[in-house]
Amino acid sequence: MRPLIIAANWKMHTTPADAGDLARTIAARTREPSVVRVICPPYVSLAAVRDAVVGEGVEVGAQNVHHERVGAYTGEVSAPMLVGLATWVIVGHSERRRDAGETDELIGRKLGRALEAGLRPILCVGEQLAEREAGRASEVGARQLEGALAGHDPQVLAEGGLVVAYEPVWAIGTGRNARGVDAAEMAEAIRAVLTGLGWPAETAATLPILYGGSVTSANIAEFLAEPSIDGALVGGASLKPDEMAGIVGRAAVTARARLEVAR
Ligand code: PEP
Questions:
Q1: Per the CB 3.0–4.6 Å rule, which of 213, 219, 222, 238 could disulfide with 180?
Q2: What residues does 262 pair with on adjacent strands?
Q3: Residuewise pLDDT in 10s, the chain (263 residues)
Q4: Is 167 in the pocket of ligand 1 (CB under 6 A)?
């Protein structure tokens, strides 16, 4: 059975002075052992969040990582630097594709650095609105996935705990979410791409797929009702403890229901 994962992407919010308090509050409001909880604060708040959630079972992630291990890259952060601060890392977020011009090839290299360092990657893929309207959503997702995963051994990716987040760009930070059925269709398409890339079907079936894009406590149930969706990558709502409590609480209900079905 795949785990239920709720990952919080705090983007460029919080300072080291306030991140610990927010993480502590969220951890205390979301104590659900059946749900994997991950908080991804800005780099500078990683240590504060790590220290704040000790003993809470909350895991810590970075929002990005450089594609080289070391070198003359002013202002950048490499995977080995994150070891001890984080155990997860987001790669290929659409805001980085947009603002930093990240390509699928570059994202694939980041994936490699993350895996080498033992960081569990959340690889984001998703189409623009015009691409969805043109009926090209799954083609775009497939291209992004194939580009980022090229040259990576499926077994290494699976053992490294790869998670894919389907994040339609038009739904991120807009308050406009995808429909659960569309997200589920994309999740199926993503697993089909993996088998097309030579992943054994049973390995592809173990890959957790999250939905991301304006998830709130009011709409999370629609996504978790889809058996192919294993949780959410949450942006704006993840800064609000009430919202996180509702989202994680719903994920715990789903985890229990799925366990019953599997028995
Ligand atoms: C995100 O940052 O990955 C995200 C999905 O943001 P939001 O929930 O705010 O749309």
A1: 222
A2: none
A3: 899 999 999 999 999 999 999 999 999 999 999 999 999 999 999 999 999 999 999 999 999 999 999 999 999 999 999 999 999 999 999 999 999 999 999 999 999 999 999 999 999 999 999 999 999 999 999 999 999 999 999 999 999 999 999 999 999 989 898 999 999 999 999 999 999 999 999 999 999 999 999 999 999 999 999 999 999 999 999 999 999 999 999 999 999 999 999 98
A4: yes
| Residue nearest to ligand 1 atom 6, measured at CA | 235
Q: Whose CA is nearest to atom 7 of ligand 1?
A: 235
16: helix, strand or coil: helix
C-alpha span between 9 and 49 (Å, rounded) = 13
Return d(Cα 121, Cα 19) in angstroms, integer: 22
- Count of C-beta atoms within a 10 Å radius of residue 262: 7
Is residue 93 part of the annotated active site? The answer reads yes
92 C-beta closer than 6 A to ligand 1:
no
Domains of the chain in sequence order: 4-262 (3.20.20.70)
Question: How close is the Cα of 12 to the center of ligand 1, in Å?
Answer: 12
Using CA atoms, how far apart are residues 225 and 204, in angstroms rounded to an integer? 20
Q: Tell whether ligand 1 has an atom less than 6 A from the beta carbon of residue 172.
A: yes
